Amino acid sequence: MFNRRKFIKASALSAGLLAVNKNSIAEVLPKGKSGNINKPIVISTWDFGVAANADAWKVLSKNGRSLDAVEQGVWVPEADENNQSVGYGGLPDRDGKVTLDACIMDELGNCGAVLALEHIKHPISVARKVMEKTPHVMLAGDGALQFALEQGFKKENLLTAKSEKDWKEWLKTAKYEPVINIENKLYDKAAPQKLPGNQYNHDTIGMIAMDAQGNLSGACTTSGMAYKLHGRIGDSPIIGAGLYIDNEIGGATSTGVGEEVVRNVGSFLVVELMRQGYTPEDACKEAVMRIIKKKPETAKKIQVGFLAMNKKGEYGAYAIQQGFSYAVCDSQKQDLVIKGKSYY
Ligand code: SD4
């Protein structure tokens, strides 16, 4: 964990000066002063981002690489069987198959993705292998599974008893009605919502980190819309839609109904708006406004949220509907949850 005393002392002494050992945590300065960069830092979508950020921080606080931080961070919800949104325990498609989407991107513009991958608990790590071990960016379905097995990943049953029960309940009506902010409803362990099985529909963790070297990486991983058509792919594994990193400018990720994000190439748009000088929050807001403008009637009924960070370590979010939250972990605070602003 970060040494707070050392940090306070160093910041007070240097009073904004950056003349400290390059690898020292004392280089981490509070944001808000011109020229200062808030790093290392990690942000991620929804309340469940707190636990994911904590594991990412283990890497970042030891001067590790942001790529390792985001991979390890999102392992937490991927492995959590109580999180019916990501990885193991995720809700299945309408045929009862858990199909996972994930992508990862580093500071050099390298990226990898898996689409509709079955039977592998950590799709983000398969996405990273696609990035590092193949000349390709995306692998889908059986091909992605075959590649994962060749890389030594273990084949597992990802459909838990709870998710199977919910799916069977859903089959009784088989209605497809996305519920707004379902991630938080599912995650609220203190007050679990007793939603009928046909209401669990969308879930994702998107994470962006900047390491002590100032390099940005991102990861996005999901079981997608619950009870989707078999083979349906959302925004989450699509570079530019569910995630985009440009190490000169910043990074963005999205959550919510992926179809609307894909239509607007949402995360790429957010990064390009930051390039034009928008703050992270304003860039996310503009991306949301494009979705609303294009399909105002659809937008009233769905949730889409964007989360972004720029090269100064400033961050912000904006969503169509109220209730979108995100988690922040930096040198000042490790378990911050922020309610993002929204249009409605
Ligand atoms: C998808 N964007 O598959 C994902 C789901 C999601 O919050 O993010 N839900 O469309």
UniProtKB/TrEMBL annotation:
GO terms for molecular function: hydrolase activity, acting on carbon-nitrogen (but not peptide) bonds, in linear amides. InterPro entries: Ntn_hydrolases_N, Peptidase_T2. The active site is at 204 (nucleophile). Signal peptide: none annotated. Substrate binds at residues 232-235, 255-258. This is Glycosylasparaginase. GO terms for cellular component: cytoplasm. The record marks 203-204 as: Cleavage.
